[in-house]
Amino acid sequence: MRMVSAATELASRASRSKEASAGGYLTIRNVGKTYDADGTCVEALKNCSIDVKAGAFVAIVGPSGCGKSTLLNMIAGFDTVSSGEIYMDGRLVAAPDLPPQPGPDRVVVFQNGALFPWKTVLENVSYGPVRQKVLTRKQAKKRAIDLLRQCGGLDAVAGSYPAQLSSGMQRRVEVVRALINEPKVLLLDEPFRAMDTVSKTTMHQHLLEMYRICRKTIVFITHDLEEAIYLADTVIVMTTRPGTIKHIISVTLQRPRLPKMLFSHDYLELKRQAAESVHAEARKAFDRGEREQA
Amino acid sequence: MPNRRFWMMWFGYLGAAGLWYASVKWLPIASFRRLPDPFTVITEWLSPNPKYGISIFTHPYYLHILHSTYRAIAAFLLATLLGVPLGICMGWSRHFHRYATSLLGLLRPVPPLAWVPLAILIFSGTESAVIFVTFLVAFFATTLNTVAGVTSIEPDYFRASACLGASRKDILFDVIIPGAMPNIFTGLQIAMGAAWFSLAAGEMIAAQYGLGFLIMESYNLIQFPTIVIAMATLGIVGFLSSALIRMLGNRLMRWREQSLGFAG
After folding, report:
1. Dihedral sign from CA coordinates of A9, A11, A16, A22
2. CB neighbours of A151 closer than 8 A, spacing ≥ 6?
């Protein structure tokens, strides 16, 4: 792990213009989150430090309720941090005394999907650039059509409303809606959670293809270890509440990732290593759930 | 070719008319005998020379309808113009919500007719008083449904738009208004129904024209078939106005209509 000192922050600020397009490194430094609901402090996240290199694909794995979505919300700027800092390309984006500030440099793809149902696919995708006033409505639509076409021929459904598409198609459109903003990091919050295995496998190939095209930094939250190893360069295993970082696994599988790799020796070996720690945490979370129920 | 549903609809109407006829003509209850039977009402309604002066061929009939419709529309428009923005403000700002809910919660249970005397005092005339009373019920229905519409919007849509660089104003127009639209239209339909409901009651107490007035007037003059004619007319006009709002809603919310069609 790399410490970001004030000096590097200054340096990066100086070269912001040069880095703006190429950037995308994310530094999470000793971040914690405490919820103070009705007087009882609940520590959701404790002392998390993660470095994500520009263009890297990182997956964060942990049992339900381990605070991984909390972490993502803090990176996205939906939620404040209680301690620690988060930097985007060396620029401070989250600290305890900073108001949360979401923005198009960190775009989220949501667990249950958040395409605006009252806008067509084309209007959804061109929404970001128009609202940020970086493109005119006409330019944005043209760019949206181009991008939709590149991402597996989605331009065919440009005029449809989201509800007319399958959930897999909706999720792909949502990824395109994020990518059109040229975000520095794409934050995916368990986007394939509600899908059946077959659709999920197809979605993985689509996502890998989009990653190959855009090479954005990706932070992918999931509770599915196999998915995490298959997609990511780095898998971060979190402990159950309070969420801390338990394990960082470098995935040595080469790209492009292909479905047959799911049966390769390397993949299975990585899975074996990680499974133990993930399952231990899941077990702990489960036991605690039982106690809370009782 | 009329389908099954069409025949079932007519079967329902005829069944109700039959029941009506039977209870007036054959039930051994003396007070029921005074009521007009369906044939008398229909004959009177369609007669060029009605016995009691009101039928589809007479001028006063349309004058009554016109008065009632005018009041209902005025009250409804006023309720929409004030209720929808108020509801959106309440849904948008937590502070506003706190101020307004307690007041609305206290005012809403007051029956609209209880306002009539005060309204006549305030507006020094029956016309505006009747409109005011009608407006009140429509206003509550519109406002409360709009608030429910705004608060029921999925929080992720707000987050998504914030992520994509929307300003607070953009969020109002891109998320809050379209997101609350289905509930707003439900509210408007309820408001229209409630408007007719309290309008008729208001007209009975304080008006010179209108279908509610006609009902009360016919009662006083022992013109019983006319009562039923006015009642049926109220039903038809109320149904048509709700249908109109529903059509407008479907038009404005194509995204919803299409998704429902796709699911079905």
Report:
1. negative
2. A172, A175, A176, A179, A206, A209, A210, A213
Residues in a beta bridge with A92: A87
Characterize the bridge pairing of strands A83-88 and A26-37: antiparallel
Would you call B109 helix, strand, or coil by DSSP? coil
**Distance in angstroms (rounded) separating the CA atoms of residues A24 and B21:** 81
* Residues A56-73 pLDDT 10s: 899 998 877 778 888 899
**pLDDT tens per residue across span B216-248:** 999 999 899 999 999 999 999 999 999 999 999
- The enclosing domain of A247 has a CATH number of 3.40.50.300
B156/chain A closest Cα distance in angstroms:
6
Q: ∠ CA(B56), CA(B248), CA(B246), 5° rounding?
A: 70
Tokens 């394990």 found at: A247
* Largest separation between any pair of C-alpha atoms in chain A: 59
Please tell me the total count of domains within chain B: 1
CATH of residue B181's domain is: 1.10.3720.10
- Edge-first strand order for the sheet with A26-37 is A40-52, A26-37, A83-88, A91-94
Smallest Cα distance from A136 to chain B, Å? 14
Q: Is the Cβ–Cβ distance between B83 and B145 less than 8 Å?
A: no
Which of these, B131, B73, B138, lies nearest to B108 by C-alpha position?
B138
Tell me whether residues A114 and B170 touch, CB distance under 8 A.
Answer: no
- pTM value surpassing 0.80: yes
User: What value of ipTM does the predicted structure carry?
Assistant: 0.84
A186 to chain B: closest CA residue: B163
* A112 is a domain residue: no
Distance separating alpha carbons of residues B49 and A68, to the nearest angstrom: 80
Q: Do A108 and B179 touch (CB under 8 A)?
A: no
Composition of chain B by helix, strand, coil, percent to 5: 85, 0, 15
Q: Give Cα A264 distance to the centre of its chain.
A: 26
**Domain span holding position B199:** 37-256
